[in-house]
Amino acid sequence: MKFIVPGRALVDYEPKAAKDSDLVEALLDGIITSTQETVAEVRKLNQKLDKSAKERSREHNG
């Protein structure tokens, strides 16, 4: 059985050969990595929004 794990290569999972904990670890690593990337993107977007809001506020109050 093969699983696609975010942030990692295709994970080959054979229930008899691999430990369940290996699959869980790979899935969690992928989830953590993709979550960290998403948080970083959201922070960048928030910074852009804050910057443009400040600029609009200055223009309005200017």
Describe this structure as you would to a colleague:
This protein is mainly alpha-helical and 62 residues long. It has one domain (2-61). The protein contains one helix and two strands; from the N terminus they run ββα. The protein has one helix at 20-61, and strands at 2-3, 11-12. A two-stranded antiparallel ribbon has the order 1-2. Strand 1 and strand 2 form a beta hairpin. The radius of gyration is 21 Å and the shape is rod-shaped.
Helices and strands, with pairings:
Layout: E1 2-3, E2 11-12, H1 20-61
Antiparallel strand pairs: 1-2
Spatially, the strands of the biggest sheet line up as 1-2
Q: Which structural category fits the helices and strands? A: mainly alpha
Could you tell me the number of beta strands?
A: 2
Major β-sheet profile: 2 strands, antiparallel
Percentage of residues in strands: 5-15%
Give the helix proportion (percent range): 55-70%
Secondary-structure element series = EEH
How many distinct helices?
1
Q: So what's the overall shape?
A: rod-shaped
Number of domains: 1
Task: State the end-to-end distance.
Answer: 63 Å
Low-confidence segments, given as residue ranges, are none
How is this structure best summarized?
The protein has one helix spanning 20-61; strands at residues 2-3, 11-12. With 62 residues, it is mainly alpha-helical. It has one domain.
What keywords describe this structure?
62 residues; mainly alpha; two-stranded antiparallel sheet; 1 helix; 2 strands
